Structure formats: C-alpha cells, structure tokens
Amino acid sequence: MVHRIGARAVLLTPENRVLLMEIVHPDDGHRFWITPGGGLEPGESKAEGLLREMKEELGTNEFELGPSFGHV
Asked: How far apart are CA 69 and CA 72, in angstroms?
C-alpha cells in the first residue's frame, strides 16, 4: 500500500446536490463512488493540489474553495 497526502472536494450544486465520480476497478470491475481530488505533488499545498486535480478530472478549476474539514 502506498501512503500519500491528498485532497478531495465536496462540490455542491445550487440545489445542494453533491458531485460524485463513479470509478470502475480495472482488475475486478468493482464500482464505487468518490469525490473529485487526489494525491498532492511534492511542494504543493492542499489548495494547489486540489485545484490541479479538479482541472484534470473536471476540466476546470474555477471554483471557490470553502473551509477545510475531515482531516485524516
């Protein structure tokens, strides 16, 4: 198992719906849902890494970052 620091976002629509991404595991086809985000690159802040990941996954990083929560 690889341990790394990451950041994820809970994105809400104006109707308070949450955006989730469906992932299919390549080995066994198991499906699960995650929030956008991922691992941080060396030297990146959590905010920088989150905005980079959202750009990669969603095609935009034009988001207003809210408060941070759920530190593990």
From this structure: 9
Decide: 53 and 46 in contact? Cβ < 8 Å: no
Q: What amino acid occupies position 64?
A: E
- Domain segments of the chain: what residues? 6-58
Bridge-partner residues for 23, per DSSP? 32
Ranges of H-type helices in the chain:
46-58
Which is nearest to 4 in space by CA: 34, 36, 39? Answer: 39
The model's pLDDT over 18-70, given as tens digits with 9 standing for 90+, comes to 999 999 999 999 999 999 999 999 999 999 999 999 999 999 888 888 888 87
pTM, rounded to two decimals: 0.79
